[in-house]
Amino acid sequence: xxxxxxxxxxxxxxxxxxxxxxxxxxxxxxxxxxxxxxxxxxxxxxxxxxxxxxxxxxxxxxxxxxxxxxxxxxxxxxxxxxxxxxxxxxxxxxxxxxxxxxxxxxxxxxxxxxxxxxxxxxxxxxxxxxxxxxxxxxxxxxxxxxxxxxxxxxxxxxxxxxxxxxxxxxxxxxxxxxxxxxxxxxxxxxxxx
Length: 193
Description:
Blueprint: H1 2-17, H2 36-39, E1 42-52, E2 57-69, E3 73-82, E4 87-96, E5 101-105, E6 109-118, E7 121-132, E8 135-147, E9 152-161, E10 164-176, H3 178-192
Antiparallel strand pairs: 1-2, 1-10, 2-3, 3-4, 4-5, 5-6, 6-7, 7-8, 8-9, 9-10
């Protein structure tokens, strides 16, 4: 009886973790090719949600991003507005190490984020001090970005603590030109009146 229970437990754990995980190299040759420094050089707007591990929607947000690429470092200023009115800002400093590898830092990122890009996909891995109520908890992000065309990108991130998924973040990005920004500013001002 014991061996059967052990086999069932191992099978259950195997099913939870899967037999293999996605790797950035799986996307080699896909198009359009995603160069982080090209996509984020300028203005980008994104809309996102956070769902807990039970699939319940917990937060929604909009983020306006201003990116500057100086040939060595991509600086991203991310201004978040959450559905409950909370405002937040994160500033990333990202360096391109070679054709496929990036590293990045931000205030609430612990150590250095590691990014690997192939084809239209980029995978970020990093530890993050997440503010929950009045305290911070350290979580791990497994963050995937998929470029759809030159304007649109989809981002899915799994938030992990002690090997367990706490939730998922889904974000949809679109590059902004000056006309888009002017229209959105006018619409926001009109809605506020």
